[in-house]
Amino acid sequence: MRTIDVTDAETAKQLLTVQHRAYAVEAELIGFDGIPPLHEDLAGLMASTEHWLGRYDGTSLVGAVAYEFPDPDTVLISRLIVDPAHARQGHGRALLDRLDALEPRPTSLVSTGTKNTPATQLYLSRGYQETERITVAPGVQVTHFRRLLEL
């Protein structure tokens, strides 16, 4: 696992490919293809101000997590992606574990499509609790989660 530099064009291309594949699966799960990262282009990704960690199988990127710090006590996980060819192999959990080790914060926030059962189960299994559901389109909801830790 290592930090991803999205300003590097070759790295960003690999990341964008995995991102599009991962969000295509989520779009199918939740019945909504309006997920912004699904339509992000290379320039948009390279302009991202998020911090990124990537998980590799040799030289191939298999997953990544993007995160931000809205305040000193909080890490906001803005994207967690795993290439569908490598799904259900522990990569998402490993990325979250590494993020916890690198950036321990009392509060961690994340959201996902409510019908994205695999992601929801992952977050609940890691101690996240649902805080709210927001309707983003007819019949489509996003669930927000929060985890509080004593550090």
From TrEMBL:
- Keyword 4Fe-4S annotated: no
Could you list this entry's UniProt keywords, alphabetically sorted. Acyltransferase, Transferase
* This protein's record includes keyword Aminoacyl-tRNA synthetase: no
CDD domains in UniProt:
NAT_SF (cd04301)
Q: Where is the N-acetyltransferase domain?
A: 4-151
A GO MF label: acyltransferase activity, transferring groups other than amino-acyl groups
The record's annotation in InterPro entries points to: Acyl_CoA_acyltransferase (IPR016181), Bact_Acetyltransf (IPR050832), GNAT_dom (IPR000182)
Matches recorded under Gene3D superfamilies: 3.40.630.30
Top-rank lineage group of the source organism: Bacteria
- What is the official name of this protein in its record? GNAT family N-acetyltransferase
Q: Organism classification, top ranks?
A: Bacteria, Bacillati, Actinomycetota, Actinomycetes, Propionibacteriales
